[in-house]
Hints:
Layout: H1 4-18, H2 25-41, H3 48-55, H4 59-66, H5 69-92, H6 98-115, H7 117-132, H8 136-159, H9 171-187, H10 199-210
Amino acid sequence: MKSPAGAAVRLHALLEKAVPEARGATRRQLLAEALGCFNARGIDATTIDDLRRVSGQSVGTIYHHFKNKDGVVAALFFAGFDDQSRVIAERIAGHSDSHSMVEALVGAYLDWITEMPEMAQFLLTAREAVSQGPMGGQLTQRLEARYRPVDECFARDMRMGRVLSLPLELIPALVLGAAESYARGWLAGRRQAPPASYAVHLAEAAWRSIARQI
Length: 214
């Protein structure tokens, strides 16, 4: 994985984007400390008192900024998710065919995970909790916005016979499923090479799973 110093710099920059106002320093500091706590202890096992202890903030301050632990989880999740979405949007922009779209999407996804392993680990573990919580509707909207250009590209190529006729809701699993599986193994320490090093191989495998063979 990346060096702790480099990871800290990247996390600081990510949180600066998510909470840019000058008075947001307390929120940013609490979110940064909460990330390590959630990853080390697990989301369910982490308590408000744990967050108080690692952040140095009072329980009242935590409630003031985030209302409860679920609010901390959601705020941290969307900070990471939106940054990941930004990277994906930049990489897929301008791609008009499904093959290059798959390459750009898989590459962006794996590059981001390789650059932000701590946040990536949190996103993978917190997604279900957020989707089942009061912010689940916002997550659905963000997911739809993230993948709308991808869905439109694939739907167009389906009509042209370049891509297999598949339910659009199935395609993310086919395109990113193997990439996510490898990333989970790497984040857990079961794989040695960083995910980005296999982006080309995983993208080509993903393309073959949806391309119409001529």
